[in-house]
Amino acid sequence: MEALNTFLAIFVLLALALLSPANGKIQEHEFVVQATRVKRLCNTHSAITVNGQFPGPTLEVNNGDTLVIKVINKARYNVTIHWHGIRQIRTGWADGPEFVTQCPIRPGESYTYRFTIEGQEGTLWWHAHSSWLRATVYGALIIHPKQGETYPFPKPKRQTPILLGEWWDANPINVLKQATQTGGAPNVSDAYTINGQPGDLYKCSTQGTTIVPIDSGETNLIRVINAALNQPLFFTIANHKFTVVGADASYLKPFTTTVIMLGPGQTTDVLIKGDQPPSRYYIAARAYQSAQNAGFDNTTTTAILEYKSAPCPAKGVAAIKPLMPSLPAYNDTNTVTAFSKSLRSPKRVEVPTEIDQNLFFTIGLGLNNCPPNFNSNQCQGPNGTRFTASMNNVSFVLPSNISILQAHQLGVQGVFTTDFPTNPPLRFDYTGNVSRSLWQPISGTKVTKLKFGSRVEIVLQDTSIVTPENHPIHLHGYDFYVVAEGFGNFDPKKDTSKFNLVDPPQRNTVAVPVNGWAVIRFVADNPGAWIMHCHLDVHIGWGLATVLLVDNGEGLLESLETPPEDLPLC
C-alpha cells in the first residue's frame, strides 16, 4: 500500500510538473481602466488610462512565465486588452480583440486574462482592442530570456523602452465618432509622443520631455514600439548608429543603420553605443506617409539622449540645446525598402516549403456610395461617398452580441460564414488604374477555416483603390516568416524565385509595401479565432480585416482550452 501511495504521489508531482510552466513564475497584476486627467499641449483632458498611468505600466517577464492580469473597467466605455504578439497557445480566450475572442468588459465589470509566454523573447506590448481606446491605453511587455539564459548579443548595460504614440488635443473616441457620422477621414493627431511626452518642438511640452540616460562607453538596448494609432514612423537618434538585433520579439541577424521605420504594432530592438562626445542628443520620430493626397500629422516628437558625464550648465545659463538629427523625407519609400530588406533571422529557420493552403488577399481602401436614407452631411468622403476598406473585396463587420470564438465553440449559427474568398473574386490590375466599379466592396462577417497543422502561405497585395498605402498587417495568435516583398502586382511566375526560404525574418506585423505585396508563411498550429487586420486603426474600423479560424487538432495539447468562467457576457 505504501508503495502504491508513493507511486501515486510521484505520478501527481510529474503531472503537475508537466502542466505547470517550465521553471516559469506566475506573475499577477491588476489593471484598473479609468479616466485620468492628463495635461498635454497646454490643455487637460480626461484620458482613459490603466492605473492612472500614461503610458500604462510596463510588464517585465521571463520566457516561460505565466501572466494573470485582472482588468477592472472603471471607465465609461467598453474595453478589452490585447497582448500584442503573444502567441496565446491554446489560450485564445485571453487574446483580447472585442467580438472576436470575447465580448467587451462593460463599465463596472472585470475579466482576468491568463496566459503563458512560450518560446518568445524580446519586445512586445499590450493595448486596448476596442474602439480607439488604444490611443492612451497601452504599455510595453518585455520578455527577458529564461533565468540563467543570455541574449545572443553582449548584455547591454541598461535597457530603455521607447513607446511612440499619437496624441489628439481632443477625446479620441469623439474623433472616431465624428468620422463615423460623416463618412469622411478622421481628424489627424495633434502630436506624436515618446513615452507619453510630445517633446521640445510642441507648445507647453518642454518640461515633460523624456530623458534617456547613457554613459560614455556603455552599450544600451533601446526597445522601440510604434504604439501610434494611425501612422508609420521613422525613428532616429542624432549622431548615433543603431545595431538592429530584434523585431516583434524575434531575434535578427545584427546590422547597422541610422534610421528605422516601424508601422503601428511593430517593435524593433536596437543597441546604441555611448561613443559620442558627452552631451545631449535628440531622439526623434516623425511620419512615414505613403498615401498620396491624404492629410497626416507632419510634426516631430523628440526625447533627449543625455550623457551622464555631459557638462552641467552654470547657474542661470540655459542647458545645451540638444543636437537635432536629420530624418528621411515623409514619403521616403526607398529608405523603408532598404531597411525592411535588411531584416534576416540570425540563422537558418524552418520555413514551410510545401504549402497546404495558398491564400491571396488584396488589401486596400474603398468608397461606398451614399445610402439613399443618408443626407450629404453623412457622406463627406470623396465626391459624396463614405470611406470603407476591405480584404478580397469583403469589408469586415464585427458581430455585436457574441464573439466569433464563442459562436465557433458553441456552434451558434448566423454569427459568421466560412466563405471568405481565398483569392480575389475578380482579378484586375491591383496597382494600376482600377475601374471605379471595383471601389465598393461587399460587407460581411466572413472567415477562412484552416486545418490544424496546415502549412499556409498568404500573399498580401496592396491595391491603388482610392490611394495605395503601406499597410501594417497584424496576425493575432501567430508569428510568421516574411519570405518576400516587392512592388507592383505579385506574379507567381517570376516572384516565387525571390523567396527567401533560408533566413527570412519572423514577425507578427508585416508592413506591406505601398503599391506592392508581401508573402508570409506559417504553420497553423494554434487553434482559435485569429483576427488579421491592418494596424492603422482608421482602416480596421472601415473593415480592413478578416478572421482565420483554426480547427482543433488531435487531443488536449492541440485543442483550445475551455473558456474561463469569468469570460464577459455580451
TrEMBL record:
It catalyses: 4 hydroquinone + O2 = 4 benzosemiquinone + 2 H2O. Residues 1-24 form the signal peptide. Its EC number is 1.10.3.2. It holds the Pfam family Cu-oxidase. One of its GO terms (molecular function) is hydroquinone:oxygen oxidoreductase activity. Residues 33-147, 159-309, 419-553 form the Plastocyanin-like domain. It is an enzyme of class 1 (oxidoreductase). InterPro entries: Cu-oxidase-like_N (IPR011707), Cu-oxidase_2nd (IPR001117), Cu-oxidase_C (IPR011706), Cu-oxidase_fam (IPR045087), Cu_oxidase_CS (IPR033138), Cu_oxidase_Cu_BS (IPR002355), Cupredoxin (IPR008972), CuRO_1_LCC (IPR034288). It is found in: Secreted, Extracellular space, Apoplast. Its cofactor is Cu cation. One of its GO terms (biological process) is lignin catabolic process. Binds 4 Cu cations per monomer. Lignin degradation and detoxification of lignin-derived products. NCBIfam families: laccase. This is Laccase. It comes from Lupinus albus. The lineage of its organism: Eukaryota, Viridiplantae, Streptophyta, Embryophyta, Tracheophyta.
